Amino acid sequence: MTSTTSRTRARSGFACTECGWTTAKWVGRCGECQAWGTVVEAAAPSGPRTTASSPGARVARPIGQIDVEAARARPTGVGELDRVLGGGLVPGAVVLLAGEPGVGKSTLLLDVAGRLGRAEGARVLYVTGEESAGQVRLRAERIGAVAPGLLLAAETDLGAVLGQVAATEPTVLVVDSVQTIASTAVDGSPGGVSQVREVAAALIQVAKERGIPALLVGHVTKDGAVAGPRTLEHLVDVVCQVDGDRHTRLRLLRASKNRFGPTDEVGCFDLTDTGIVELADPSGLFVSHGAHQVPGTCVTVTLEGRRPLATEIQALVVPSQLSNPRRTTSGVDSSRLAMVLAVAQRRAALPLGDRDVYVSTVGGARVTEPGSDLAVALAVASAATDQRLGTDLVALGEVGLAGEIRTVLGLGRRLAEAARLGFRRAVVPSGTSASESVPDGLELLEAAHLAEAVALATAARSVPSPERPLAASGH
């Protein structure tokens, strides 16, 4: 009996419930995804192997004869969501929308469901497992998502959800959330690995069979990853992440996986008391609109995916009363700032060793890319020397340890956005005019070294230019 059990265990092996990694012996930590306690004994294969069957009506055809009209994306009515999805929802596609609690996932999908439910003949089934139908109705009234084609169902049983799909025959399915639905045929509590895998597989199957797009809401773990097994992200067609600081209203929608479109697009939304509103031009959120500019401010243009966003960086330099001066940041990477300050002190002779330095962004923007190094350095230099920079000045470039100014990715798109927003001067790396097309009305101040960039920026002061169109953007 013992030998038979050993042979069976050796034949079945062990597998990780998160990523599917297999091993012959049990281990406490997965060797692939490094997760603890996820390696369990895999079931031994039983019965004969699968044999060939008749393909029926689905015989392979030449690729030129395949109908593509049924696979084209349909717009959702929300332009920023369509931008991220690659044009809209594809019939039969399964979209997983993940994000932290309170970031606006349910509000966004309810707004989308309301827009789709206003179309003639549309039947959008919204299944909620976290709230009652009455609570969803109240939120729909608050954000203006009440539509004749929007159907609500409060279910937590997978069989009941599939029954609702069969009874209503919806054109779009929304499930909020996949972690709250459970199947009676699988052991485990709702949200567990086995339950999430079973629920997702059943919903994906019904979406593919009926050709209806399905939108699933997913929770995230403490480190920001999608909760549940890692295979969940492989099963669905699109994985979107909603990011945003709870202290600001801006919400960014990114796609980490998209079988039907790009993964470098970003959608911008504004979370208000009346719902979530798309922002087609969010640059005005990150730039102050004061009539008088003070020393210590500099504007840069960052790239969120392929979208350029103008962001203002503010710096304050004051004498320190401590043996170790403070280096405080908000919205800027602290390690990146420490490097820029060291280069500015050593290569540009800025007196920063005995001073506290505070650097922040406007509007809650987060700047982490190297292309903002030059703007940070110029803002700190302006604050340290108490010299204002031009109100029509923008800075683009990466600062090296030797003080050199390097070019950045997508410089042409950044310059075009700066010119569109009314900036007339741009401090850029040397050689930019020879490699990039310069927009009309924008003067390039090329610098090869940080000290040269500081001299050009402080000498480029001008009288305040006419009101830039930034004040009209964003809201």
UniProtKB/TrEMBL annotation:
DNA repair among keywords: yes
Keywords noted in UniProt: ATP-binding, DNA damage, DNA repair, DNA-binding, Hydrolase, Metal-binding, Nucleotide-binding, Stress response, Zinc, Zinc-finger
PANTHER family, alphabetized: DNA REPAIR PROTEIN RADA, DNA REPAIR PROTEIN RADA-LIKE PROTEIN
Family assignment from sequence similarity: Belongs to the RecA family. RadA subfamily.
Comment, domains: The middle region has homology to RecA with ATPase motifs including the RadA KNRFG motif, while the C-terminus is homologous to Lon protease.
Protein's job: Plays a role in repairing double-strand DNA breaks, probably involving stabilizing or processing branched DNA or blocked replication forks.
Protein's recorded name: DNA repair protein RadA
Taxonomy of the source species: Bacteria, Bacillati, Actinomycetota, Actinomycetes, Micrococcales
Name of the gene encoding the protein in the UniProt record: radA
